[in-house]
Amino acid sequence: MNRPSRLPPAPIPTPAVVDLVPWPTCWICLLIFASTLLAYWPALNGAFIWDDGGHVTRAGLRSLAGLGRIWFEIGATQQYYPLLHSAFWFEYQLWGDAPLGYHLLNVLLHATSACLFGVMLRRLAVPGAWLAALVFALHPVCVESVAWISEQKNTLSTVFYLGAALAYWRFSAERRRAHYALASALFVLALLTKTVTTTLPAALLVVIWWQRGRLEWRRDVVPLLPWFALGLAAGLVTARVEHTLIGTKAAAFSMSAVERVLIAGRVVWFYLGKLFWPVDLEFVYPRWAISATTAWQYLFPLAAIAALCALWWERRYQRGPLAAALFFGGTLFPALGFLDVFPFIYSFVADHFQYVACLGIFAVVSAGVAELGARTSLRATRVAAALVLLTLGSLTWRQNGIYRDVFVLYETTIAGNPTCWMAHNNLGIALANAGRKEEAITHFQQSLQIYPDNVEAESNLGSELTALGRPGEALPHLQRALQLQPNLDQGYVNLGLALMALGRSEEGLAAFATAIRQSPRDPQAHYNFGVALANQNRVSEAMVHFERAVQLKPDFAEAELNWGLGLTLMDHFPEAVPHFERSLQLKSDSAAAFYTYGRALAGHGRYEEAIGQFRRALELDPNFAPAHFDLVDILQRLGRSEEAERHYLESQRLK
Q1: Domain spans in the chain, listed from the N-terminal domain onward
Q2: Which residue has the higher pLDDT, 653 or 186?
Q3: Which of 62-71, 246-255, 313-322 bottoms out in mean pLDDT, i.e. has the lowest?
Q4: What does the alpha-carbon distance between residue 100 and residue 8 come to, in Å, rounded to a whole number?
Q5: d(CA 47, CA 100)
Q6: Does domain 420-519 have CATH number 1.25.40.10?
Q7: Which contacts qualify for 496-500: CB closer than 8 Å, 24 or more apart?
Q8: pLDDT score of 518 more than 60
Q9: Which of 311, 336, 554, 589 is most open to solvent, judged by the fewest CB atoms within 10 Å of its CB?
Q10: Which of 233-247, 436-450, 516-530 has the highest mean pLDDT?
């Protein structure tokens, strides 16, 4: 007997599109932009926070040559995302160091992605398309990606990701080469912005399977093979950069295969929980203690497998939930724990990891709500949806507040996650930069109590102890930091400063030389080496390093000042003048800089100009006693005794 041939699954009939926002596309997009801007209004006042300095274009890359380095020198930027850093380069040309421009662009990119998401769902005839787009625009889990300037990698790459998906979907329907070329170009742009977009071709196959119930090799898979190859290449480059330049070689990544499975199972449920109940969102969540010997931890992956099995069985009736789950899990795959990602040192989860993945969940839930409304009361469903959107927007508005500045960010993080050693360390850095060094030391010490092998906290603690005139206490911390990480950036610089303060000048100079060998493009290392050499009366050698520091960081005011001072000491004062003036342009609030230039002018008989510099120093700091004292000498030389006497009395009072 011949067996009957097995027919492929028939496509599930597409229901009539039900949308809860029955407006023309242009009006809905205007609504999305307006509501997104309103919900993220507090973010526009935010300052730069952690890691923004590694993304907003640094001084050495702000020229056209720097733009070339962004593309052709791996290591010139924190990660090799050349299109992202090119975007930051152009943004710096537009608004420099003003955070507002970066924040506003991030909000607009997020709103653009929400509109593209809605258009995509409409093309796919998904019910509740615009509801899903509005949920994505207003959901507080997206705040970390939108309110944090560094995460422009998310907002920008998602625009390219969704644009590529739309173009490819048109190619899939019409099979025109121009559409394929456009889709491929947009996919490459997405990869060059953030590598996690490498999951797009797999996501497209899931969507095709959802629509037709099957995949055809030649029609569906073959056109996407080049995309898979491009994604693999981009992923390998990123993994290499993470491993060698960022530091995913740490012991924190030494996990067994079983432990990684346990992490993945828990991560999936954690993210789902935050989507459906978006409260207690943290910048850094507590890092879970994963143990293969703890039975209850196996419940997470087992529950995930059981859910997938149930959805697989359900596919005979509706494929949407399984497609959404596959999209969600597949897009999250790079952050599930199977690959080493640097933030895993602090936590296995972060809101920005699910920025793209959440689209699948929003789509399937919104579709379910729309279909329920069509069967019951569409009006009541719209009212309920509006209330949900209002609630999400309010939560987003509130969540923006923690990104106001570094102090609010880390204090809030510590309040919700007291064992976050990274937050203690970074808050210490912020306090030290604000001149609150004793408070900074307390947080560095707390960071080390939580995580004794925290290299950065050891180095930072040593650096601040040196700055407070306690180099003897600093030395053991600096030496331990270098024992833990011999190639630590800034480590040998900090060690050199402590050794010089202890009078161990030869050892200090050797430490500075090591810092230069390890980081030849570090302007601070060159500057500190120059200062140390100058203090040993090796001025001509110091000049080489001041000049190099300025080449690497053109806005390095202190290096310009010391360059000018060195030229003055070498009897090249006319050549020194432009460097003094450039320093004062860059740092016009430094009384010490005006005073230094004034002394150089006075030493070359340019008394009236020197008086002007001293007076400017006193305008900035009326209690700057050396300026009063030097004015006494110059004014007496010029026969202005009465004026000289006033400055003499003031200098004695301050002394």
Answers
A1: 25-56+97-403, 420-519
A2: 186
A3: 246-255
A4: 55
A5: 8
A6: yes
A7: 496/528, 496/529, 496/532, 497/463, 497/466, 497/471, 497/528, 498/462, 498/466, 498/471, 498/474, 499/471, 499/475, 500/532, 500/535
A8: yes
A9: 589
A10: 436-450
